[in-house]
Specification:
Helix content: over 70%
Shape: globular
Structural class: mainly alpha
Strand content: under 5%
């Protein structure tokens, strides 16, 4: 029972932190505005570690590598703690275990990125139906616009209804299935 509680707390704390760091990375990558409640929330939760890390990890071509690498390290640390709580020993081959953990963490980051995309698309669609002029609309628009643009080139709006969010969600789900199968092949045997 205590190990289940510990696993829940570890997944919750590290999961929130990884989601916030990835959202910060994507907000900066896609030039989303930070002067809104979402941007302020993300900055408030992650500034304490991202700003000092930027001194050691510089950006590259406009990418916030500090946020991304911190998310990757946090995900790998979470996986290591979860395996340790389940009784896995890393003493036999620490180098191989570290390689597998960082590979699994990279796959998890891809999955989390797709879940973030799905969530942002759903929220953006709801906002566009309910109140397209809300203060949060610009951030969700800037986070989804590059993904919609791919489909808007080929699929016109039908009766003033944009179907590109539907196709983005469909492709994200297909990629999640493929990543899930790939993650199962890389899993560490218990």
């Amino acid at each position: 029972m205590l190990s289940q509680i510990a696993i829940l707390l570890i997944k919750t704390a590290f999961g929130l932190f990884v989601y916030v760091l990835l959202l910060r990375f994507y907000m900066q990558l896609l030039r989303a505005p930070f002067r809104n409640p979402v941007g302020q929330f993300v900055a408030a939760l992650s500034d304490w570690i991202v700003r000092p890390a930027r001194r050691a990890i510089p950006g590259l071509f406009g990418l916030d590598l500090a946020s991304f690498l911190l998310a990757w390290i946090a995900e790998a640390l979470m996986l290591a703690l979860l395996y340790w709580l389940r009784g896995f020993s890393f003493a036999g081959a620490p180098g191989i275990a570290a390689g597998v953990l960082f590979t699994l963490a990279a796959l998890e980051l891809l999955q989390i990125s797709l879940y973030l995309l799905i969530g942002v698309v759903i929220i953006q669609v709801i906002i566009s139906w309910v109140n397209p002029h809300t203060a949060l609309a610009p951030i969700f628009d800037s986070l989804t616009r590059p993904f919609y643009a791919v489909f808007r080139r080929f699929i016109p709006a039908i009766g003033n209804v944009d179907l590109s969010p539907l196709f983005v969600l469909l492709i994200a789900q297909i990629l999640l299935i493929a990543l899930d199968d790939l993650s199962r092949m890389v899993q560490v045997p218990m």
